[in-house]
Design brief:
The chain is mainly alpha-helical and 239 residues long. It has one domain. It is built from 8 helices and 2 strands; from the N terminus they run ααββαααααα. Strands 1-2 form a two-stranded antiparallel ribbon. Helix 4 runs antiparallel to helix 5 and helix 7 crosses helix 8. The protein is globular, with a radius of gyration of 19 Å.
Length: 239
């Protein structure tokens, strides 16, 4: 097996192991903070879409049961409602692509993400659980950037990206197809357009799967010329 094929095979095996491990640990305390973080990205996406279309964000709330809401004013409702699930998917794509950046060090990216999370929490999140979670998770990202190696921060960034992309797909399925009675983003779009909730669910899942497939192909090609950060050699003993 040539080196390129070996890299791709290692990536596919690693991705499958990651996916299986994530699925096995999905309802455990180990994955819980990352799931709430992705919910926050979902709500931030609503807020950014409202701002981008001429509206404003009033507040964001996060709940311990992995629920949340973004309260916005103005903007284009169709765009704002569509931005939640697709936004968390695109955040995941962005994190993975940044994880393969040759020019931006992983510590810089993780620290910037931590600062963005702290800024968003302080100025927009308005309930106790969400506020303290945002501060804690943002602080943890800053600590990772400060104390952990470049390689560890790169793996953290890739892990957050993959989890965000996968969670977007599972979240759409759960909220729209499995629990269609919920007042989800798709349900509100159905009320607005007259098109059934299940249509939006299948449409968003199709988009999410296509984007995820494209991302995997992009990563496979990127592996041909990418090397992980070398770990620094151990210090030489002082005579």
């Amino acid at each position: 097996m040539n080196p390129t094929a070996k890299k791709r095979m290692n990536f596919l095996v690693g991705f499958l192991l990651y996916f299986v491990g994530l699925w096995a640990l999905w309802d455990t305390a180990l994955v819980y903070p990352v799931k709430v973080f992705v919910v926050l990205l979902h709500e931030v996406s609503h807020a950014l879409a409202a701002i981008a279309t001429g509206g404003a964000v009033e507040r964001i709330v996060l709940n311990a049961d992995q629920g949340g809401a973004a309260y916005t004013i103005g903007g284009i409702p169709f765009v704002t409602l569509s931005a939640g699930y697709l936004g968390s998917l695109l955040w995941g794509v962005l994190f993975v692509m940044l994880g393969f950046s040759r020019w931006l060090k992983p510590r810089w990216i993780i620290s910037s993400l931590g600062l963005f999370l702290l800024f968003t929490t302080v100025f927009v999140v308005r309930n106790p659980f969400g506020f303290f979670f945002g501060l804690a998770f943002g602080g943890a990202l800053l600590a990772s950037a400060r104390y952990l190696s470049q390689r560890t921060n790169r793996f953290l960034l890739l892990g957050l990206g993959l989890t965000s992309a996968l969670y977007a797909i599972l979240d759409i399925k759960s909220d729209i197809l499995t629990r269609s009675h919920l007042r989800s983003d798709a349900a509100m779009l159905a009320e607005m357009t007259g098109i059934p909730t299940v249509f939006w669910g299948f449409l968003w899942i199709a988009v999410a799967l296509l984007v995820s497939a494209w991302l995997l192909r992009w990563v496979a090609r990127r592996l041909d010329e990418f090397e992980l950060d070398p770990e620094p050699p151990p210090p030489s003993p002082v005579p």
